[in-house]
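Hi again,

Forgot to attach this to my earlier email, sorry! This is the prediction with flavin-adenine dinucleotide bound. I've pasted everything inline since the attachment limit keeps bouncing my files.
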Amino acid sequence: MNDRWNIIIVGAGTCGMAAAIFASRRNAKVLLLEGSGDIGGTLHISGGMMSAAGTKLQAKLGIKDSPQEHYDDVMRICRNTADPAVVRLAVDHAAATFDWLTDLGLPLVPQSPALTAGAHEPYTVRRYSWCPEFGRSVLKTIAPSFQAAVATGNVTLKLRTKVTGLIQDPRTRAILGVRTEGADGAAEYLGSNIVLATGGYGANGAMMAEFHGTPLYAMGAPVEAQGSGLNLGRSVGGFLKGAELYHGNFGTVLADYNYPSKIIGRALTMPEVRQPWEVYVDSEGNRFVREDESSVDERERALIGLPDRRYWIVFDSAILKDAPPVMEFWSREQIEAALGHHPMFLRADTIEELARQGGMNAEKLARSIAAYNGALNGNDPLGRKHRPRPITKGPYYAIRQHCTTLVGTVGLAVDGQLRVIDRNLKPIQNLYAAGELLGSWATMGDSAANGMMVTPALTFGRILGERLLQWDSRRAAAE
Ligand SMILES: Cc1cc2nc3c(=O)[nH]c(=O)nc-3n(C[C@H](O)[C@H](O)[C@H](O)COP(=O)(O)OP(=O)(O)OC[C@H]3O[C@@H](n4cnc5c(N)ncnc54)[C@H](O)[C@@H]3O)c2cc1C
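Structure tokens for the complex follow:
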């Protein structure tokens, strides 16, 4: 309580570790507070896939690229829904972050850098890279630098210490420090700069319901992703942005209806991997997207547009027999064993019975399938081109997919220097936020752009670590 730290960082994850490493290099006195019992945050389970333009790796491979092209690509993919200042900051400094990692020996898969790995829209230039052990490779690469920073004595790490409140000057509204609860009980720490790097809310069902009106269908994020930084920011006058830009994937198959449920697999809905033989219908029984739509973003947006963000994949026994297995990594035998036995895998002798089992409207489902069958030799109502055969031969089947998300869309509002701002867009003095706490909307808008969470989290941590003291001295000179 008596010490005054140069920088207090809340959260020793992707962003917080980078911030501590770079602040330590400037001899800052850093207090790093981590609620869980370990460093690394989401990197333990993240894909850790990164994107950066103008890297040494690209130069070595003769790939011409620039931060402007990266910026244009991200904004094209999300139709300009991301925060321009935050995206600009991320892409302008991404190459330095990526080069830092590769200089440290980051192991990369041979495809790196690629346009995409398939899950999201491709870039126009090869700038997307990943590692054999995904996020854990990134963690292993930076962990020695982090341990070295702790060894210098510049960084004091306190694990199992959760920040529960911010200390605010009632007159100036400047942030003076933090309140914590931990193994040693309650405490207060004072600091000149407070960096919130607490990650997202992807494991917080109440926030999913509050922000997006959707249940937390599955637990894809670490359990620590409870959005505590959003509440800390709100408690001192900060505000949240991005709720209308909710983004999730095109669906996964859940273990059961007790949300959040386990994910047990996903259907192969990517036409570049497997062309669709089935039709996709919403909870009413209506088709809602052209199943062979090549843009993953278009497919995801169609699903996100449904009120309950889930759908049925409907097919018949002829398709089950002749089409390549529809579930990724599942054999035909595994799929057959689940149909009619697992709550997400229906089997019925008639379309009407299938609708009844799935809670669909039988007339609507029958009409959707009849229209699809009838259009096989003409134009599909939704413009689908790949229509190998009608759905006419019972028994009939349906597999349920739920739109799930790994990250939180909503974030704490900041300015171009990552200062937390109030509703009048004025910085709340001494308070910064970075990483997923800014919300995926800030760097990716209403879409998913390859690598635009991990690279920005590391980059913003690095920038804050490098610049905070500089900004401090400028501020002191101005005062
Ligand atoms: C399964 C999965 C795969 C992903 N794959 C990719 C990918 O390939 N590419 C990509 O770009 N993005 C990916 N992401 C997203 C990306 O990994 C995260 O957005 C990013 O790592 C978050 O970094 P962060 O530093 O903001 O938060 P984190 O790394 O989550 O760190 C936050 C830390 O803060 C701690 N904390 C929280 N609240 C408090 C508190 N009140 N007091 C003290 N400590 C607190 C937490 O315990 C945690 O250690 C993925 C996410 C998931 C879940």
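The first strand starts at residue 4 and ends at 10. The radius of gyration is 24 Å.

That should be everything now.

G.
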